[in-house]
């Protein structure tokens, strides 16, 4: 498939009828895969599991008791190898970004519960029009997710306790060695949604996107060991790679397609334009 739509066809459409709702305090906050629901059923003091839902026990009534109960279960399942890619980083569990979280959960487990997660992404570029070049990173081989695949110049998950803007500033410093005066020129440009099952993990997310035009004299350098190399890629080559290969992480490819549309490299004259727009904003059934 020599089209940008290939990126949205890398993984089959999500059939939510195959999953069980994750319910907390009578709120629907995620989707649990059947096999993982069976594992959770071993912990009836924390989860009630039936054919339709995985429900956090109502006796866990506060943010702290819910978080502690889930953490206890996840620690056991981690020891059994059922929660790969452990980060020691907490994500909120809620129906929306601006609603109070019901609990916090280890980042690596969010894809097992199908909960809504967030990220910040920076499109760093040099020049304008078809003379534009885009900075691309190659992920380190020891990354727990998508090792060795292509990435943005800066991107990261959105954990508890920090704003998207401050998180972006932190990631710019750590991932690209970017001076604060450069990073602060980043412009918020919107969001994309993610809803896909990737290697038996459900990715459900909102990605906060930023653009930054960088000076030709700037060259990124990684400081946290998460990037193997940086490449400055002509925009025409970037489009060709997205049309013909799958070497970009899925969420990164989607962010880049949004970037290409916003900068006029893909438009209404492209046969896939309307389909691309729709895929960039896949609805998330329970989001608020």
Automatic annotation (TrEMBL):
Pfam families registered for this protein in UniProt: DUF4743 (PF15916)
UniProt protein name: DUF4743 domain-containing protein
Start and end residues of each Nudix hydrolase domain: 117-258
CDD domains: NUDIX_Tnr3_like (cd03676)
């Amino acid at each position: 498939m020599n089209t940008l739509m290939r990126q949205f066809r890398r993984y089959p459409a999500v059939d939510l009828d195959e999953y069980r709702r994750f319910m907390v305090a009578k709120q629907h906050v995620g989707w649990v895969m059947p096999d993982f629901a069976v594992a959770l059923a071993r912990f009836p003091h924390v989860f009630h599991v039936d054919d339709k839902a995985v429900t956090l026990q109502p006796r866990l009534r506060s943010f702290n008791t819910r978080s502690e109960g889930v953490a206890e279960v996840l620690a056991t399942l981690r020891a059994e190898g059922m929660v790969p890619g452990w980060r020691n980083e907490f994500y909120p569990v809620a129906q929306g970004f601006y609603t109070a979280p019901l609990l916090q959960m280890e980042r690596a487990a969010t894809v097992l519960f199908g909960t809504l997660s967030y990220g910040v992404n920076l499109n760093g570029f040099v020049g304008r029009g078809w003379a534009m070049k885009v900075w691309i990173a190659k992920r380190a081989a020891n990354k727990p997710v998508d090792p060795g695949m292509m990435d943005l110049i800066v991107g990261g998950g959105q954990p508890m306790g920090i704003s998207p803007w401050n998180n972006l500033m932190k990631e710019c410093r750590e991932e690209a060695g970017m001076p604060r005066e450069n990073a602060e020129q980043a412009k918020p440009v919107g969001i994309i949604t993610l809803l896909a099952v990737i290697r038996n993990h459900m990715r459900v997310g909102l990605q906060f996107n930023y653009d930054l035009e960088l000076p030709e004299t700037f060259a990124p350098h990684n400081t946290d060991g998460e990037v193997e190399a940086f490449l400055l890629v002509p925009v025409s080559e970037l489009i060709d790679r997205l049309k013909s290969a799958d070497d970009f992480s899925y969420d990164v490819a989607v962010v880049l397609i949004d970037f290409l549309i916003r900068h006029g490299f893909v438009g209404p004259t492209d046969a896939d334009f309307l389909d691309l727009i729709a895929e960039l904003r896949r609805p998330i059934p329970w989001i608020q």
